[in-house]
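sorry to bug you again but im stuck and you know this stuff better than me. what follows is a protein written twice so to speak, once as letters and once as C-alpha cells for the fold. id like you to explain what the C-alpha cell line says about the fold, in plain words if possible. anything you notice is useful, everything is just below.
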Amino acid sequence: MWIPTAMKHMFWAGMKTTQRNTGLCDFAERYVRATEHRIEAERLADGNSAMYLRTLLTDFKIEETFRNVYTDAKFVEVQRECKRLMYCNCNNTKEIEEGLYEHLIKDRVYIYSDIEKKEKPIDRWRIYRVLYNAKTEELECECRLFECNGILCRHCINALKSQQIPDVPKKYILDRWRRDNYRKHTRVKVAYHDLSKTEEVLRYDKMMVAFEPISCLECENDEALIMVIDGLQQLEMQIKKVVKPALPMSSVGGQLADCGEDDHAKVNVELPVDGGIKDLPTNRGPCVLELQGL
C-alpha cells in the first residue's frame, strides 16, 4: 500500500489502517468488541512484562537497556532491530559540520512474505543516511522508523556504535512503551469497559473520591499546596516499597522542584480510603454509544 510509504514521517505508534464500507451501527458494535478485546490483551501483556524477561541476543548495552525498561511486546520489536544489525555495515562516516556527523549505512532490503507472514531479507542492498548531532544527541535516519513507530532503528543503533556511545540517549526511550508506566485510561469508565470486573479500578475511584476534599482545600493557598505535596511524596515512597520497589522513589511534585526543602512543611497526610462509598460519582458524561443504548 502507498499510505505507509507516504506517511512514514508521521508518528502512528505502529498502527495500520484499512478501508471498509460498513454502516454506523455495525461499526459501533465492532468497535465495542474490538476495544474490549484490546483492553484484555493489554492486561495480559502487562502481566507478562512484569513477570518475564527475554534472553539477550547481542552484547549491545542498548538491547539490555530496552529490555529492562520497555514492555515485552515493544522489546520484541527492538530486539528484531538488534538481530538485523548483522546485515548493517557503516561504509563511511564524516563530519559535515561541527558536531554533526553523517553515517552511510549499508543494509539489506526486506520484503514481507504472505506465505510465512513475516519480513525476509532479499539479495538487494540499500544505503541509508544517518545524521548524528553530538551536541543535542539527536539521530535522524532516512527509514523514519522512530518517527513513525517510536522504535529506534538498526541504522541509528549502528551509528551510535560507530560514535562509541554505549547506551541509548534518554530521549529515545518513550514513556508510552515503558513497563513501569501507569495506564490511566484503563481506570476510566466507558461503555465497552465494565468497571465491576476490575478491582483496581474500584480502588482507584474510591481513592479519588476520598482525596477530592483535600484537593479542594489545598488549592486555597500555596502553603496548603506545599503541605499536601510533601505529604504525598512521603506517602508515595512508602507505597512504592510495598507495591513496585523498582520504580523511582518519588515522582510527586515535580513542578515544585525549584522550592527548597526548608520551605516545605513536613506533614503526614492520612487519606480515608474506606468511607463506605457505594455509588462512586464520575465526572464523565454519557458517551454516544450509551445514549444510543449500545
Q: What stands out?
A: Residues 24-51 form the longest helix (28 residues). The radius of gyration is 24 Å. Residues 2-14+22-177 form one domain. The beta strands are 89-97, 100-113, 118-133, 138-141.
